[in-house]
Design a protein that fits this description.
81 residues; alpha+beta; three-stranded antiparallel β-sheet; 3 helices; 54% helix; 12% strand; elongated
């Protein structure tokens, strides 16, 4: 299946189309879609399932990210404040 996105005038439409293009670029980097030229993309027949699996993997990655703000253990942090 081939898909063409053509932006028309108007800031809101450009922002909307831009969001879709950024999404397609992320999916291209993941190997799900292919860019034919600047405004045409090759979308596979199983796009929905592959994109859903990509999204599920991304949400698992973001949930597993942890940040450490202090090297002190919790009980020592309470005493230090």
């Amino acid at each position: 299946m081939r898909c063409a996105l053509r932006a028309r005038s108007g800031l809101r439409l450009r922002g909307h189309v831009g969001a879709h293009i950024r999404r397609l670029e992320a999916l291209r980097r993941a190997g799900i879609v292919k860019r034919i030229d600047p405004d045409q993309w090759r979308i596979p027949d199983d796009f929905e399932s592959r994109a859903a699996a990509y999204d599920a993997g991304r949400s698992r990655q973001s949930r597993s990210a942890s940040y450490r703000f202090s090297t002190l253990k919790a009980d020592r942090r309470r005493r230090a404040t």
